[in-house]
Amino acid sequence: MDGGSALVVGGGIGGLAAAIGLRRIGWRVTVLERAAALGDAGAGISLHANGIRALDALGVGKEVREAARPQYTGGTRVPGGGRLARMDGAALERALGTPIVGIPRAALHRSLRAALPAGCLTTGTEVTSLDLTAPGRVGVLAGDGVREADLVVAADGVNSALRTQLFPGHPGPAYSGSTVLRAVTDSPVPLESDFELTWGRGAEFGHIAFLDGRAEWHAVLNSPPGVRHPNALEVLRRRFRDWHEPIPALLAATRPDAVLHHDIHELAAPLPSFVAGRVALLGDAAHAMTPNLGQGACQALEDAVSLAAALATTSGVDSALARYDAERRPRSQSVARAARRAGRMGQQLSHPVAVAVRNTALRVAPDRVALRAILRHAAWTPPSLVSHSEVARPY
Ligand code: FAD
What we know:
Bound molecules: flavin-adenine dinucleotide
Strand order of the largest sheet: 6-5-14-15-16-13-17
Number of helices: 14
Mean pLDDT: 94
Radius of gyration: 21 Å
CATH topology of the domain at 5-71 and 101-174 and 266-345: FAD/NAD(P)-binding domain
CATH class of the domain at 5-71 and 101-174 and 266-345: Alpha Beta
Helix content: 25-40%
Shape: globular
């Protein structure tokens, strides 16, 4: 099925990817984004093989790989520097064709935007509500009036207003108990490992190395929500001054105004459906998860490919959306549960005895256990965006 019209609400990673996927199957697409400009959307991001395969299916994998740094070395350590687990990027590459890659978010956004024609993206347009009254159509109310389409993709993030309208009884996002401060260093930093996490008691410090030698770092702390520091970088330099290198070096190479601070919210109560009428929820709007597995954006990219594939290969929009829900909801909600568990057993653990037991278990576990944990979520094969009848059609 092709030739439908879609409105994508939200121009984040999920919304842009959805727009690319829908255009690839011949749909007319407009992305409505409330921000005045789409620009630097945060620090950096790691992409697992499933995210990269989704980008390949969308036709932008090559550009993203060229801007990304493969993460071959690293793993998990304790604040004194001792190693808990090793990440073997070469083994991941052998198993899945690619190791994890690290990329500045701005570069990923650029690659996604470049795959869309200029007229496809409308910024400075906030969607306030949906009109679901016309059968087989859906309308959105935006600042500049009402627009109609065959399909709306709600990719408006963790605080999705569209999700609230569609599922008024759902409790919405919940605070995870952790807050995250992060930045990209101002200059290159000498790093022994591409990718590292260090777990203390109720605290994690991690980095992802970029192609140009700079790195993104993040500090995740157990905290009540809403706590902010006038000089966050100074607070972190004190908090982590006794932790192993390169942590103090990463903080030293950062400008105070580069630090971003967000409380981490997730959809702890899973949605009963990713579809309501002619609206498909996608990305964080559908399944916001804690960042402990580095899978939130990867799942949004999977959503985008699966939605386009379902529409391309299923007869009728309603059946295609039912298939999208059936394929995406169990998988993404199971990854979200695993991410929550990983946070609770990793960064959030603070009792000294529990921390000691966890660390001992990780130290004695063979490296292949860590590898298997990554493979469990990263081994995903994208569905085809081409319908069977199209493949068989004699030209
Ligand atoms: P968003 O990025 O939130 O985009 C939503 C867009 O919708 C925004 O541009 C917003 O302005 C717009 N919008 C909202 N409301 C409206 C409206 N009413 N009308 C119009 N526009 C609207 N994932 C990974 O895969 N790997 C990682 O390494 C990773 N690290 C992370 C680290 C941290 C600290 C955090 C917090 C998350 C991390 N994630 C990671 C998760 C990832 O960032 C998200 O899952 C992903 O960005 C979600 O994309 P999205 O497009 O669904 O939502």
